[in-house]
Each structure stands twice: as C-alpha cells, then as structure tokens.
Amino acid sequence: MPKPSQKVVALVCAAGVGSRMGLSVPKQYMKLGSRPMLVHTVRALSAVERISDLVVVVSPTDAYIDEVIPLLPANVRVLRCGGRERAESVVNGLVAAGFPGDAWVLVHDAARPCLRPGEAGQLIDAVLTDETVSGGILASPVADTVKRTDENRRIVETVPRKALWRAATPQMFRVRELIEALSGDLIGITDEASAMERLGRPVRIVQGRTTNIKVTEPADALLASLILGDTAVVPVRVGQGYDSHRLVEGRPLILGGVTVPFELGLDGHSDSDVLLHAVTDAVLGAAALGDIGQHFPPSDPKWKGADSRILLEAVVALAADKGWKVVNCDATVVAERPKIGPHMPAIRASVARCLGVSEDVVNVKAKTNEKMDAVGRLEGMMAQAVVLMARTEA
Ligand code: MG
Questions:
Q1: Ligand 1 centroid vs 312 CA: distance in angstroms?
Q2: What pLDDT score was predicted for residue 336?
Q3: Which residues of 180-196 are buried (b: 16+ CB within 10 A; e: fewer)?
Q4: CA gap 163, 210 in Å, rounded
C-alpha cells in the first residue's frame, strides 16, 4: 500500500456576510489597522512553511474581493464558489481547488485574523505525528465557570470545565474525509470537527493561543487590532509642550492661571502664562492637533491679553471632540525667582480645573536654572509639560 500523502494545503473561508457587525461591508473586509481583516488572516496562514497551496473561498457575488487581491500573497488563489452555508463553501472550495483527496487541509475562518503562523505549525506537526487521529483543531481551555440552565434561565448544573475547550480554527483533516463528512446531514454541525466527530473519527485538540479570537462584534475588532499590534488604535497618546517668555517690568506674573506676586511679569501678546502654554501644547500634541499658535495666532487682536485658562479649556474641549480625554499631566516651570513653592497648591488646582481632571493626576514642579543662561539671569522663564490622553470611545 502506498504511503499516504503528507501534503498540507489550506482553505480560508470568507464567504460569510457578517451581519452581526452592522457594517456596510462584509466583516472580512473591514479594516484592522491599515489592512482588511482577510489580508491579515491570509498572510498569517501563508507564512506557515508546511502549507504548499492556499485558497480563499468567497461568494460568487462578492463585490469587494477584487480590491483585496493585490494585497494578498501572489501564490494565493481566490475561488468564487462560496455557498449559503459554511460547510457548502468549504466543500465547493475543496473541490474547485483540485486538492488531492489524501492531502491534509487546514480550514481557517477569515474572521480569525490574529492566528500566529507558529500555532498553525504546531497543529500540523501534532496531526502528522499522531497516527491515531483523523485530524486536529486549535482550541483553548475554557477559563470561565460554565453553567447549564433550564428554559427559565435557572441554573441546573455547573459543568466541570476541566475537559472543556473552545474550538477555534484552523481545523485540519484529510481532504477526502472532510468532503465526505460535510456532505452528510449538517444539523447541529457548527465546525468541520463536529462533522468528523459525527462519523466517529478521532479528532485531537492542540492548544492554541487565546489571542486567536473570532471577530464577531465591533469590540472584537478593536481587540484584534490591538493583538495585531496596530498602533493606530492604541487607546492612549502622549503629548509634549514647551514655552518661554521674557520677564519685564510692569506686567503681572501669571503661572498656571494663578497671579504670583513678583516685581517682574512675563511679556507677550496674551497673559503670557508660560506654564499653561506648555500644557496647552502638550494637549494639542497628544491629540495631534497642531500647536497653540495655529489655534490662537498672536497676530489676531482677539487674543490680546487673553486669559490662557480659556485657551487651555478650549483646547481640551477640541481634543474631547476628537475622542481624547486627559489621563494625567506633568509639568516643570523653570524660574530663577520668585519662590513658586508656596503657590504650588493653587497652581496645581488651577491647572487641574482647566484640564477638567482631579488634582491627583496633575503634577507641577518648579526649578531654578542655577543662575545659568537667560533664565538664570532672570531674563525670562520657561516651562515644559507632558500630557497623556486616552481615547474616550472604541
Ligand atoms: Mg507662550
């Protein structure tokens, strides 16, 4: 008897419509970062060395795949033979692909874009080296306590979870055996493995990573983007700000919105609050909204003598409008004189009020410049700030 083939191929099922996501495009085409979900999924599988042939099954009426094909690895074949049910799509795809009946096929779901090539490789190794099984699937242990209920949602039983697994994909079987299993009665069949189990074929579990999630709900898409390391969706941003003003006679000294008694004051178009200007630029920086001069040009008479608290509040509102809120702020004022320490509680409270946050997330430090340079000679003051902001919506 000839030795059975150890050829390994793969099929990505992308014929669904993903109605649960409430999207205008089928979910396999929604963008995760810069690429459609399907591209992430196919690239992960195509990076698995053992897989010699990879096909993607889409619906014959799919209007989006043509735009995505240039983003797929060149050796991937797209087959427009999807059916109404997943099983039908898989069978049609296996037949249309012309895979040898005794080849091994990994069937993978387009909605699992976070698969790591390494875990697919472990599945392949495990199945190829275990002669007692007809195939295998990636799965992860159930971590939650599982309850069974009656029709009134009263708990009937706590199901021991020790032997429970969450089935994922890829799922790996011989092509011919899988076609046979999926061609029978499909009532209660929710994955390829369950069809094989029904025929009494032994299927083994290979523990995969819990990050191989199925994108079903909008929140899953955000999580998937994070798992894929898409920095555009990282929900925090940092911003930095710097400002300096000259010290002159005949002007009040205003720091963080607080008037500090001193014989000199900061010169400039507005109230010249060097600390609030640095903080304002840090907020604008975190939200990628430019700088203070763009929003409040010194050439505009409207801002002459302006209260910088109002400018900062306006910028915080602008950032909020873009979906960013302040997490915390840390700032440093560099001033040779006067001593700022006694005024610090008031300054900190004032900055917090402008930022719309509590005082315990605001820190302001004061330093001298050790008599060095212009600041050290009392010609001016400078301030620096960093602000962390968090996304307010998914
Ligand atoms: Mg300024």
A1: 12
A2: 97
A3: bbbeeebeebebbbbbb
A4: 16
Å from CA of 239 to ligand 1 middle: 17
Could you tell me the distance, in angstroms and rounded to a whole number, from the CA of residue 236 to the centre of ligand 1?
26
- Find the 324 Cα to ligand 1 centroid distance in Å: 23
**Tens-place pLDDT, residues 238-271:** 999 999 999 999 999 999 999 999 999 999 989 9
333 within some domain: yes
How distant is the alpha carbon of residue 6 from its chain centre? 37
Ligand 1 midpoint to CA 246 (Å)? 10
Query: Has residue 2 been placed in a domain?
Result: no
Report whether 79 contacts 72 (CB < 8 A).
no
Q: What's the confidence (pLDDT) of residue 188?
A: 86
How far apart are the CA of 245 and the centre of ligand 1, in A? 6
Residue 107 belongs to a domain:
yes
* Length of the chain in terms of residues written: 394
Cα 261 to middle of ligand 1, angstroms: 20
Strands (E), 44-195: 51-57, 77-79, 104-109, 135-141, 146-149, 155-159, 165-174
Q: How far is the CA of 274 from the centre of ligand 1 (A)?
A: 5
Q: What is the pLDDT of residue 394?
A: 44
Among candidate residues 199, 228, 257, the one where a domain is terminated: 228
Of 383, 352, 339, whose CA–CA distance to 240 is shortest? 383
Going from the Cα of 267 to the center of ligand 1, the distance in angstroms, rounded, reads: 9
Half-sphere exposure of 119 (CA within 13 A, CB side): 23
Task: Kindly give the distance from the C-alpha atom of residue 272 to the centroid of ligand 1, in angstroms, as a whole number.
Answer: 5
Q: How far apart are CA 117 and CA 239, in angstroms?
A: 36
**Which portions of the chain are predicted below pLDDT 70?**
1-3, 17-23, 393-394
Q: Is residue 190 located within the same domain as residue 259?
A: no
pLDDT of res. 201 = 96
- Looking at the structure, tell me whether residues 100 and 164 fall in a common domain: yes
Q: Does some domain include residue 3?
A: no
Distance, CA 338 to ligand 1 centroid (Å)?
19
